[in-house]
Design goal:
By secondary structure, the protein is α/β, with parallel strands linked by helices. 29% of the residues lie in helices and 19% in strands. Helix 1 packs across helix 8 and helix 5 packs parallel to helix 6. The radius of gyration is 22 Å and the shape is globular. The chain binds 2-acetamido-2-deoxy-beta-D-glucopyranose (2 copies) and zinc ion.
Amino acid sequence: MLYYSWIGLLCALAVPVTCNSKSALIIVDVQECFLQGGSLAVAHGNQVVPVINEIRRKYEKQFSLVILSQDWHCPDHVSFVSTHPGTSLYQVVNLTYNKEGQLCFGDNVPDTYQHGLHCNSTAYVVPQTLWPDHCIQNVTGPTSAAFSKQMTRKQDDVVIRKGFNCEVDSYSAFFDNGGFSQTELNETLSAAGISRVFVLGLALDYCVYYTAKDANRLGFNTYLIQDASRGVARSSITNALVDMKSHGIHIIQSADMAHLFVSRAPTTKKYNLFIIPVMFLLLFT
Ligand SMILES: *[C@@H]1O[C@H](CO)[C@@H](O)[C@H](O)[C@H]1NC(C)=O
Ligand SMILES: *[C@@H]1O[C@H](CO)[C@@H](O)[C@H](O)[C@H]1NC(C)=O
Ligand SMILES: [Zn+2]
C-alpha cells in the first residue's frame, strides 16, 4: 500500500513525464540466425521468446509502438570472417572508410572485395569483430534472417532493418557502427510521440546494448529488460550492463514492468486526489 502511495505521489508531481509517457517496445534481432540451430546462435537465446510473448500478452495496450529490428545482410557482408582472407573468427580488424563513409581497400580488405574502393585518403577507422556468416537476406537454413516462428507478431509491428549496407556493420537499430547513416527508427519513435522505450532481445552485449545506448543518448527514457535478453559472452555482458547503468539506462526484469504501468490503473487517480492534501499537511505542519 505504502509503495503504491509513493508511486501516486510521484505521478502527482510529474504527470507528463513519468505517468503519461508513451512507450515503445523494441525487440532486437530475434531471428533464426541467432537462435538455436542458427549460424551465430546465442547461448539460451530461445529462452527470450516466451518471455517476450508474455510481455506482449500482459502489456500490449501499454505500447504505442512495437518495433522489431532485423539484422539484414548481403551474402558477402563486411562483418563476415569469410569475406576477409587470412583472418580468424571473432578477430577484431580495423576497417577504414573515406569521408563519405565508403569502405576503403586496405590491410584486411583485398581489392577483390566487390564492396570496397581505392580511396585517395581515409577519414574513419571502425573496429570490426569478424562473425560467421549470419542473417543473410532471402535465404533459409542456419543463416536465415527470418524472425523466430514462435515469437508473437502483429500486423501493426514496425520492422526496422539494419546492416543492409554491405560495407558497414550495424549493431544498433538506430545507427550503423561508423555513424554514417541512420535507420528510420528515431524518426518513427519521435513521430509517434514516444518518450520511453523498453529494449530487449539478442544479443544483450551487442545489438541490444548499442540500441539501448543510442536510445538513451537520443533522449528516450530507456529500460533494458534483462530476463528477455541473452548475450554472447559473460565478460562482455557484465561490461555492457555496467556501462548501461552508468549512462542512466534502467536495468529491469519483466516482472518489474507491472509497477511502471501502475499509473494507468483506474485507482491511481483517486490516490492522486488523496495525496495532494496529505502533501500539504506534511509540508506545512
Ligand atoms: C532480397 O529480396 C529483396 C526483395 O524481395 C531484394 O530487394 C533484395 O535485393 C534481395 N537481397 C539479396 C541479397 O538478394
Ligand atoms: C586499430 O586502430 C586503433 C586506433 O584507431 C589501434 O589502437 C589498434 O591497435 C588498431 N588495431 C589493429 C588490429 O590494427
Ligand atoms: Zn550482423
